[in-house]
Each structure stands twice: as C-alpha cells, then as structure tokens.
UniProtKB/TrEMBL annotation:
Residues 9-181 form the NAD(P)-binding domain. It comes from Streptomyces enissocaesilis. It comes from the Bacteria. This is SDR family oxidoreductase.
Amino acid sequence: MLLMIVVIGATGRYGREVIEHLLRRGVPAAEIVAAVRTPTEATALAALGVGVRHADHDRPETLPTAFAGADKLLLVSSTGPDPVRVAQHRAIIDAAAKADVGLVAYTSVTRAATNPMTSARVHRDTEQALTASGLPTVLLRNGWYTENHTATLPGAVARGTLSGSAGQGRIASATRSDLAEDAAVILTLDNQAGKIYDLTGDTAWTLPELAAACAAHTGRPVTYTDLPAEQYWQSLTQAGLPSHTADLIVDADLYISQGALAHITGDLSLVLERTTTPLTTVVARTLGI
C-alpha cells in the first residue's frame, strides 16, 4: 500500500531540498506530493514524478483537497509578518485535522518555549495550535540557517567588511540542506508522534570568525564591523530588504549577541548519523573556492 507524504512550500528552497532528500533516500516519487501556491512553478518536481497540488495558505478552501489522503504532512513555516503567518499556519492545521492526516511534522525554532527572539512567537503559537488540534505531531525545532549569514559573503569580500549587530555572540547554525535532510529522515521513520528534535549545528561560531574564514579562503582582508541596531537596520533596508525582514534580522542579531543561539544539542548529527556541515565548507562553497 502506497504512503503519501505531503510537503508544504515545496517550491521554496527548504521544501524543495526536503523532497530531493526523500527521493535520495528511496521514497518513490509517487508517494510524495508537493503542495504549492503556484503549481506552474513546480514543473521541475512534476518532471521527477512528484505529485503537485494547489495549496494556498491564504485560501483555506484549497487546502482540504491538497491534503486528502496524506499519511504525513510537513508543515514548513511560512514567511512574512507574524500575524499573517499565524493565520496561515492555523488554516493549515485546521485543514490537516479535517483531512485526518496521520502525522504533522512542523518546522519550529530551537528552544521554542524559551527562545527570546521575536520570530519565536510564531512558532510557540503554532506549536500550541497543533497541541490543541489533537493531531499527531513531531516538532523539528530548527536552529539558525548558516546561509542566513553566508549568503551575503561575496559582497562582504568585495567590500572588505562583514556587517552585523551580533557582537561576539556565538551561532550553532546548520545548513539548510542538513536541516532538510533531517526532515526527510524523520518523515521516513515510524513512531514519531510526540517527539521533539532541537536541531543545531555541532559547533558554534561568531561573525568575526566568519569574516576571518572569508579572509583565509580568499587571501583578501575581510573584517567584521559591529553596527548599532538602527544603523544595521538602515543598511538592510537600503539594500532592498522589506522592513519586517530587516526587523527580524536585527532582532536576531541582538539576541545572538546575548547567547540565544550559542547552544549545541547534538540532535541533528544524531539523526543524520554524521557530523553537521562545517562553516568553512559553506564559506568555500558560497565563494566558489
């Protein structure tokens, strides 16, 4: 009997990588459904044999059909202003309950119950909604993406400076691919309802250390410049980021400076059965070295 794993947001970078890891692990494409806002953007997934269904977070009437027959559902947290995200997540949870989904895996945030970052509120609200729904749930409390800080490295190398507001705060980050692989593993395991995974990288690093890694890889001087929060926010919005995104980035950096993301749990490497991808590997890959 075929199973059905539904992945929400499958055309996003994380969701797409989850599907790629599911396929690598031998899950038949016929057992995977990509639930997406715009099906025409999922043609590459459809070409692999993955099912594609229309699922718009903001149009709840599209969700029951998208989730019909699902044994497992990966609820990838949405993006945007917090009130909108909470409403979207609640609509998905309601539809999943009506569809009698066998297991919901939710991409929460590390140390959700006590995490001080503003962005953690959405995850706490969503976890509470999942509990209230009675749905069998496994929580994937993802730590910080390494790419949150490495994506801008080419520009930092060109300028000779990497900016932020995190001071000497340490970050036990993990790559998007490592976290996506973790989700794929969990979705293929039995008896996951009620489990909680707090997923961090195996080592913690600072932004000055990231700048030093850039310099070491390129042979060019790259230093870290710690900016006051308002100045950093202005630089982000001037670079074209929406104000709410800049708010979250600056907020995260300030809490990073206080140690909010310095903890290491070991859960991720335990699930992957290997060490997490080192920062230097991501730096080299990002800079094309």
